[in-house]
Amino acid sequence: MFKLTSYTRVGLLGICLAAASCKVPAIVSPSENRSVPPAYTNSSDTTNTAEIQWRSFFTDKNLISLIDTALQNNQELSITLQEIEIAKNDIRLRQGAILPSVGVRGGIGVEKVGRYTSQGAGDASTEIKPGKEMPDPLMDYTVAAYANWEVDIWKKLRNAKKAAVTRYLSTIEGRNFVLTNLIGEVASSYYELRALDNQLEIVKQNIEIQKNGLEVVKIQKEAARATELAVQKFQAEVLKSQSLEFGIQQQIKETENRINFLLGRYPQEIVRDKGTFTDVPPTAISSGIPSQLLANRPDIRQAELELAAAKLDVKVARAEFYPSLGISAAFGLQAFNPSYLVKLPQSLLYSLAGDLAGPLINRNAIKAEFSNANARQLQAMYNYERTILNAYLEVSNQLSNISNLEKSYDLKSKQVDALTKSIDISNDLFKNARADYLEVLMTQRDALEAKLELIETKQQQLNAVVNVYKGLGGGWK
């Protein structure tokens, strides 16, 4: 009868494992689309505002101080920093899987077997010394060092570590994206607060004008040159403006609290310049070329790194189809009596074993994980392409917005000048009975609305500049 030697058995096992690993699914390697239009407009100037540090981009000292506080205390930013620490620890975890695992163990146990068994009968007749039999029950004392190591022959563990490193880098880009958004949000809220301050001041000035008009119409009523209807109309306009004043005050309070939330502190007054808001000039913007977005935008860089990590995950999942080689070893001392542990070489314990294991039957779970890894890779690719497209459209929209708001602001400024002059003209005509009181009221109302709209347009101008700066990838450097 033919007998298989141990070497033959190992060889046959290796052949079986190799045959089982032959039908391994191929890796899907889609190529992402990185192309962007050559320019936002007809300009090909590569000067890019995103290269300017935020301390130089913003000139308001109060705003710079607020941003500094936000960068120190904002809770969302702190959460992101902890995500970076988690990703860093994951690298250490993956690195540990590559290296051998070494440990020390000590143990004590007792064993009592039946006397009328093969082991019991043998133990009972064994003499450890002349005239002294094996103790019953039998103790077991062990002190040993052990090691286990999976040989990374398919680069599965190294690819897993590379994926962890890539995700760590992506969390850093995620932090940069949070920085950019935080700086932009603080700046936009600050400009909104300054705009509300100016609107409140204009409403108060308008109330004084309306009160003066109310006194005039009351005097004219006494002189029988006006009616009670005119008095009530002027009174209603005063009350309407006073109501608007309280509404703006509430908006100021909410905006202050929003800024305080971004700064990670409880409500307090926001220190700010309360001068004329319409005199603040928008910062000039140089958009550069769209391809610079790939290097400047943190969200694009983060999506790119996530895609790279997803590709490595596919390689890790594919390596699961191949057999793995594990090596285990142990070295120590073992005896049934503590005094015998130091008797060498009789108490020596050592072992060395190699383990070759691979999936043969029912590989559905491995196939499912491999398919999921491929699907996640495609998701990451589509997310990367979408992020690039979104970034380009954001910048394109805001550049157009800046241009249109500049033209709109010029026209509204002329409208405010014309309506401001018309207020004095209508009041003079009304005093001389050459204009109806409704014309005076409508002129005052139109002038107030135009002034408030002018301030809103200035706010939109400044916000558009902030949005372009953020959209180009500025603020995090």
Give an overview of the whole structure:
With about 475 residues, this protein is α+β, with helices and mostly antiparallel strands. The protein has two domains: about 30-100 and about 155-325 and about 365-470, Outer membrane efflux proteins (OEP) (Up-down Bundle), CATH 1.20.1600.10; about 100-120 and about 135-150 and about 325-355, Single Sheet (Outer membrane efflux proteins (OEP)). Helix content is about 60%, strand content about 10%. It contains eleven helices and six strands. It has helices at about 5-20, 55, 60-75, 75-100, 120-125, 155-220, 230-260, 295, 300-320, 365-430, 435-470, and strands at about 100-110, 125-130, 130-135, 140-150, 325-335, 350-355. The strands form two sheets. Strands 1-4-5-6 form a four-stranded antiparallel beta sheet. Strands 2-3 form a two-stranded antiparallel sheet. The longest helix has about 70 residues, at about 365-430. The chain is elongated and about 140 Å long. The relative contact order is 0.15. The model has no long low-confidence stretch (mean pLDDT about 90).
